[in-house]
Amino acid sequence: MHDMTAANLRSGYGGESMAYMRYMIWGDKAEEDGFLNVARLFRAIAYAETTHAANHFRALRDEVGPFLVPSMAGFGLGTTSQNLEGAIEGETFEIDEMYPTYLETAKQQKERAARLSFHYALSAEKIHADMYTKAKQAVEGGSDLELGPVQVCDVCGYTAEGEIPDKCPICAAKRDKFRTFG
Ligand SMILES: [Fe+2]
Ligand SMILES: [Fe+2]
């Protein structure tokens, strides 16, 4: 694999792995604050980030060894509104800067597995940013988010409120590939 794509996959793996932990911690904080649907949203999206981390790791299957991994990561435990702002900032960085750059490099380097993994992550993060933005608006208004069941695709991390789709709109996975956070 080309060095730059391998480095990007490792960085993405690091960033997604930490996003998972950050969202779980922020989910606990939202629950403590009484925002039970915001907590559920954090946990559903945390799960989606594990699919991205796992896809990046699998794309690195032949790149064996220890590496120091720099990755963009937010820190800090604030109020739920501040934590949602942190989540929106993190997702926005991934959408506007990180994944478009990684995806373009993977395309140029003809790294097919990495290209797919970055495409899945970029597509799902756009949805996450929107969902967190709605959650922040609700919390700032002093109420919990109105939220039906949240469905997460195991294959690509696609996340949607409502019923399980017949086919994942990002990766075409079937219904049995979805996990429900209800
Ligand atoms: Fe995300
Ligand atoms: Fe999917």
Summarize the topology:
Elements: H1 3-32, H2 36-59, H3 80-108, H4 112-140, E1 150-153, E2 159-161, E3 178-181
Antiparallel strand pairs: 1-2, 1-3
Helix pairs in contact: 1-2, 1-3, 2-4, 3-4
The chain binds fe (ii) ion (2 copies).
Detailed description of the structure:
The structure is a single chain. The radius of gyration is 16 Å and the shape is globular. It has 4 helices and 3 strands; from the N terminus they run ααααβββ. Strand 1 and strand 2 form a beta hairpin. Strands 2-1-3 form a 3-stranded antiparallel sheet. It has one domain (3-144): Ferritin, core subunit, four-helix bundle (Ferritin, Up-down Bundle), CATH 1.20.1260. By secondary structure, it is mainly alpha-helical. Bound molecules: fe (ii) ion (2 copies). One fe (ii) ion is lined by residues 45, 49, 91, 125, 128.
